[in-house]
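This part of the workshop introduces the protein records we will be handling. An example says more than a description, so a record of this kind follows.
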Amino acid sequence: MRHALWMLALAALLVACGEKPQTGGVTKRDASAYSGTGKAFVDGGWKQGDQASWESHLKARTQQGQNDYNRIN
């Protein structure tokens, strides 16, 4: 019985060490957020790939919807 427990513990340790990376074989580099997705569903006035336009839209969204002081007053 004791011998079986040791073998089970050893087997569990060996299984944990043998895990393979789960990359799927494809490595993809992340793009910057302002580069867009290439789809037509974007906010009006924002051009995909324009960093200044992205930052101005992000600032406006933050002030209008996420600033509790502005929403309450």
Remarks:
- The CA atoms of residues 37 and 48 lie 8 Å apart.
- The chain has a mean pLDDT of 79.
- Helices lie at 2-17, 51-65, 68-72.
- DSSP finds three helices and no strands in the chain.
